[in-house]
Amino acid sequence: MTLPMANYAGGCLCGAVRFEVNGPLTDLHACHCSQCRRQSGHFPVAASARLSEFVLTETRGLKWYRSSETARRGFCAECGSFLFWDGGNDEMNINVGSLDPPTGLKLAGHIFVDDKADYYEITDDLPKFAGFDKPITG
Length: 138
Hints:
By secondary structure, the chain is mostly beta strands. The protein has 1 helix and 10 strands; from the N terminus they run βββαβββββββ. The protein has a single domain (8-114), classed as Metal Binding Protein, Guanine Nucleotide Exchange Factor, Chain A (Beta Complex), CATH 2.170.150.70. The N and C termini lie far apart (52 Å).
């Protein structure tokens, strides 16, 4: 079976985990939830791909951490790179900083703004959501 040419490729810092996305990504959102901040050290920017279009091409360093009853987070056990998370649905949520450039992608908004840390402000004019999909108005 020949896979279509990847729309995106990416991986960890040391190359022990590599992946491809053979399809489109959703809009990019900065996630300000405490779990993402703790794992990444700040807030990550992520996009989702269909699981059927997400292909792991190198898994030598891949480890999974179960962060909740429904989600697991994939990272490289060799270099520590935080790469993606699987929420148990038909999507893989990819930290776009792990994608090979150029991506041609742009940030679309902010999620879990009600949970953001106190040491920074969100000052852009992009849409902001209290949780995953509850808009903040005013």
